[in-house]
Amino acid sequence: MRFTKMHGLGNDFILVYKNRKPNAEEMSELAVSLCNRHTGVGADGLVVIYPTDRADIAMRIFNADGTMAEQCGNAVRCVAKYYYERLSAQKEQITIETKIGVQTVWLQAEDGRVHQVRVDMGEPVLKPSAIPVCVGSDRAVNERIEVKGKSFVFTGVSMGNPHAVIEVEDAANFPVERWGPFLETHPVFPQKANIEFITIHSPDEVTMRVWERGVGQTFACGSGACATVVAGVLTNKLNRRAVVHLKGGDLHIEWNQDDNHVYMTGPAAFVFEGEWRR
Ligand SMILES: N[C@@H](CCC[C@H](N)C(=O)O)C(=O)O
């Protein structure tokens, strides 16, 4: 089986092209084998691409632990670059079918190479039914939870997948590995959650570290960066347009007031290609 390794700001994926919609159970098992960094290729997730009638191309993302996620911003940018450069599409606006619907993507290319990708990440969902449970409220802003005797304040945002955004004093040096696992699996998050630890520097700039559901700490999370800006706006600390500094680089996020959609702009890169034989 041929595969392509790619990354979006260090959030790395193995892309596999299939001629038709794959069997989710098989792909889940494949993700666990391929993503293993000691006995496999090594990646944060497996991205399966296949043709569809609903969009230019379809994709599904499986976390390294084999769970299928609803959304993955960094993988959408990788798929867009792959489609443009490897499937010889060379279209500057494309649609990608994901588990949560069809996403529109704009590509900035020069000499056949894609440099930046802008993705319509859709509308954030703030209702607690889709995100962390908070009885009696229509959104989860500045909610307190305790883990192992430590108290955290989070804002819950679903970008199709669940996020809990937590402001900390110094995100760059925060012990993500220490607290991430407990927060991801806290009972208040029925579907588990991706946890973003953020430090706001100004209304236009924020540093974010992430503990991803089904993966662990990663270098970047596109949907997490979108959730961060939405949370920052809800708490009156960030503008609707902000730069999110991640371990792997920067993402430009805009929560548009007119259509309520969140737009994410950033790069994607090829790493290598290979063949997986069992
Ligand atoms: N890294 C991704 C998100 C991948 C899925 C996530 N781990 C989940 O389970 O929801 C991104 O760039 O958005």
From TrEMBL:
Protein keywords: Amino-acid biosynthesis, Cytoplasm, Isomerase, Lysine biosynthesis
Keyword Zinc recorded: no
Any single biological process term in GO: lysine biosynthetic process via diaminopimelate
Reaction catalysis annotation: (2S,6S)-2,6-diaminopimelate = meso-2,6-diaminopimelate
Catalytic site positions: 72 (proton donor), 72, 221 (proton acceptor)
PROSITE patterns recorded: DAP_EPIMERASE
InterPro entries: DAP_epimerase_AS, DAP_epimerase_DapF
EC numbers: 5.1.1.7
Pathway noted in the entry: Amino-acid biosynthesis; L-lysine biosynthesis via DAP pathway; DL-2,6-diaminopimelate from LL-2,6-diaminopimelate: step 1/1
Residues annotated for substrate binding in this entry: 11, 63, 73-74, 161, 194, 212-213, 222-223
The family this protein is said to belong to: Belongs to the diaminopimelate epimerase family.
Binding partners and assembly: Homodimer.
Protein name: Diaminopimelate epimerase
Species this chain originates from: Lihuaxuella thermophila
